[in-house]
Amino acid sequence: MAQNEKTIPVVIVGGGQAGLSLSWYLCREKVEHVVFEAKTACHSWNDERWDNFCLVTPNWQCELPGHPYQGGNPHGFMVKQDIIEYVKGFVDSFSPPLQEHMAVTSITRHENGGYRVVANDLVWRAKHVVIASGAYQDAVIPGYVSAIDSSIFQVHSQDYRNAAQLPEGAVLVVGSGQSGAQIVEDLFLEKRKVHLCVGSAPRVSRFYRGRDVVDWLADMHFYDLTVDNHPLRDGARDKTNHYVTGRNGGHDLDLRKFAKEGVGLHGALETIRDEVAHFQPDLKGNLDDADKTNADIKKSIDAYIAREDITAPTEAPYVPVWQPDGSNAPLDLKAASITSIVWCIGFRPNYRWIDVPVFNGANKPIWHRGVTDAPGFYFLGLPWLHTWGSGRFSGISRDAAWLASRITGKDVPVA
């Protein structure tokens, strides 16, 4: 044993809602453990979201273990401060063994069994290690950004806060996933001229036939669909989330409607060279594919309503309100008065500090329900860890209870 090495049964890396959910179960089972958090328990909600951020899932889906949503608006959508207070309330509800500002810098196999975990230059030996640090550590920004004129302000979505943060002028938003689509609306409502590079993200309606689409899909057990039963299998984990919003009670985000009202839509960004943006010729296809996904979801709801003989109002089919002209012209940033670029093209996980054989050739972790082939080594809180609901407040508790069962060797019921 190394000098001053401490021994503990379980180390959880990451003090967000996933790591804390597992801690809740281990506390209930009286299993000694520690939760290491590099920053603070709520830092991602507080420090990496824009001012008008809100959940896209309804409040009733917030079901952390022993801490369900208890407010008066179950079908509403928590705004940023509400989310922070909800997570803080969860922490306060059971006082986890949380050590904040403890960055784990190395995990290796211990020569005497288990794992050696180094955090803030201190060393622990643990029989079980759970990586609950999420999949969003390294912001993705193209390598050529340094070649873009320094007079153009650039910011990643995790550092975007509000329109006032950006210099006056038009804004180019790159990426149309959940963050990109919502940030476009945030800027549009502040009367900013916006251009959007539209990628392959699908969309979904907020409401359909009298109910939130999430309510319908929950009744249809869509969020219980396991990755093993998904047509794409592990490929489901690479799919982009559907864009929609919970802002002001929730509504559709229809990029065609934005275009009709003045937002410039372009295909996926190919490159920016000499302050001229070049796009892929896929705008029409991306818009059509997003609408098709939405239509297919509605068809599945229609079939469920018919099968279960449910009385529900009917709704006319969606009719596109705008069509691109197919020009795919490059965009001269200076000529278009663009003074800012907001990069909304996602994140990459950072596992460089883990030296344990649990990764494939692409450096992606391999697991089944969070359990790896390395004894006592687990992942938690990742999209499609087991089901579509795994990345949501509603699914984390189930995944955490499962891992608690693997750690304790006994059945741990879901709270």
TrEMBL record:
Superkingdom of source: Bacteria
Signal peptide per UniProt: none
Record flagged with keyword Oxidoreductase: yes
Keywords annotated in UniProt: Oxidoreductase
Single GO term (MF): flavin adenine dinucleotide binding
Name under which the protein is recorded: FAD-dependent oxidoreductase
Species of the source: Acetobacter oeni
